Amino acid sequence: MALISILFYAFIAVVTIQVIFYSSFLLSFAIKRAETRLKKQLPVSVIICAKNEAENLKKNLPLVLNQAYSNFEIVLVNDSSSDETLDIMETFASKNSNIKLVDVKSNETFWGNKKYALTLGIKASSNDFLVFTDADCSPASSQWLAHISSHFSNKTSIVIGYGAYAKKKFSFLNKIIRFETVMTALQYFSYAKLKIPYMGVGRNMAYTKELFFNNRGFNNHMNIKSGDDDLFINEVANSSNTALCFSKESFTISEAKTTFGAWLLQKRRHISTAKLYKTKHQILLGLFYISQLLFWTLSILLLSIGFSWQWIVLLIGLRFTIQWLCIGFTAKKFEEKDLILLAPFLELFLITTQLSIFIANKISKPIHWK
């Protein structure tokens, strides 16, 4: 009985931690409205690094070219592709004077390292304000660049945006991927709003060339093949230089992975970089995940033995209420309302998958950048 009592009090502590986290997320970001004031259009360079992305470039590059923006160039970086990527880039460049090409040849020292290719693209850019997206991403509107660039200021040198995934009907995997994306965005937007930014996504982010070179670019983690977006932002973002852009017009949209195997490999790469975050971010992110895992573990255990079940149900209800409010407001903001009712089931599947990925990464290193 003593052990059960200890587990019960541990459950109270876990629920308290979860409620504190979700309340912080709710108040800092979930209920906030997006700012839509568009400023004078700054000269920007859009950097797109592509490796074997010929078909995606055909589909998505016209949407970038058709931005309602008066002063921008597109820097296309061919990262040693083996398909027709370079040919497609050259075709677009021949018809559009604002496209600049960077053809990265295979380099033994930096083989398979996207950061090397991105660095060459940044060096080739003509403007100080840089906007980043991927070849498999399409802007959600013709105002994408206008919204992202409007958040730059004398103090702001980083803009983090939202990279959504396209919906696919009757696909549980697609819902898992979109739910994980919403939860990740909820956290990195909330932490940035709380003045402790820790990451952005390369599908939709921006920063200045001056910031990049003043911080020696990717030099501090060039040997880590992933993390060109989150590790760099984790290193250089602070309480005053980071802005949030989450208006619907500013989203980018990508096609999600279609097999669990491909998605797991992608998540293994992403999770492997988290151990290199600043200590305070590792502690906060680790505490949130552990409290999620313990919430489900202790809920199931205590309910199965029937110990003080009325209190257990009450605490579970309290936690789910604040979680649903937080996820509900956020999902509505990101146009992912179909995920709200499924949130508990998606969360349970996601945290168990993340646990298996963590164990897998301890056993072997994940594969990086195509």
TrEMBL record:
InterPro entries: Glyco_trans_2-like, Nucleotide-diphossugar_trans. GO terms for molecular function: glycosyltransferase activity. It holds the Pfam family Glycos_transf_2. The chain crosses the membrane at residues 6-31, 283-303, 309-327, 339-360. Residues 45-179 form the Glycosyltransferase 2-like domain. Keywords: Glycosyltransferase, Membrane, Transferase, Transmembrane, Transmembrane helix. Belongs to the glycosyltransferase 2 family. PANTHER family: POLY-BETA-1,6-N-ACETYL-D-GLUCOSAMINE SYNTHASE (PTHR43630:SF1). This is Glycosyltransferase. It comes from Winogradskyella endarachnes.
